[in-house]
Every structure is written in structure tokens, then in C-alpha cells.
């Protein structure tokens, strides 16, 4: 699934060019997380809080094939591996999300 950066991030309309580091601190668009959730067949967790939860579904060390949920941190880790250092135009550059998940 190819997605434009403008679909992933909530950004200021003043600047359209962002470094990789600047992109990684932007908020993630809710519509994008819903779309990615359907594509991956996983539930999106708005919070990374897992303290006191004995359920392994949220365990970050669980093999990808057994995961049932993903979080903002998972998206950012994926993007960190996909984006090379440099400057990106948020309205024209895109990222490809594979169907197989490798967090």
C-alpha cells in the first residue's frame, strides 16, 4: 500500500519540506491509522501503555505473525526503517507499507 506522507502525518501548511527527524515528531493522522488497521488486519492502540496487562497481544517482543495490535511506536519504527536520511516533500513523497508486518 503506497501512502503519501501528507496522509500519514498532521502537518503545518506553512512548511511542506521536512527532514526525516522532523517527520518523526509529527502527530499521526487518525484516518491513516484506521486505513492501516484494515490493511494489516490489526487493531490500532492509541496508547503505548501496557503496564499491568498480562495479555501478550500488546507485547512488543511477540513475533509479527501473532500480533493482534499495533501502536504509533510501531508505525514510527516502520517509517524509520523505510525513510532514508534527507528532506521530504510532505505532499508528493510517499512510503510503501508492505502487507507482511515486520515491526
From TrEMBL:
Superkingdom of the organism of origin: Bacteria
Protein name: Uncharacterized protein
Species whose genome carries this gene: Flagellimonas olearia
Source taxonomy: Bacteria, Pseudomonadati, Bacteroidota, Flavobacteriia, Flavobacteriales
Amino acid at each position: 500500500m503506497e501512502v503519501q506522507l501528507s496522509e500519514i502525518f498532521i502537518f503545518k501548511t506553512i512548511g511542506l519540506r521536512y527532514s526525516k527527524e522532523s517527520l518523526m515528531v509529527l502527530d499521526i493522522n487518525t484516518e491513516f491509522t484506521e486505513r492501516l488497521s484494515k490493511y494489516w488486519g490489526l487493531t490500532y492502540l492509541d496508547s503505548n501503555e501496557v503496564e499491568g496487562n498480562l495479555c501478550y497481544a500488546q507485547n512488543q517482543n511477540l513475533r509479527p505473525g501473532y500480533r493482534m495490535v499495533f501502536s504509533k511506536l510501531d508505525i514510527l519504527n516502520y517509517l524509520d526503517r523505510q525513510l532514508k536520511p534527507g528532506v521530504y516533500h510532505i505532499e508528493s513523497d510517499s512510503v510503501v507499507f508492505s502487507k507482511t508486518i515486520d515491526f
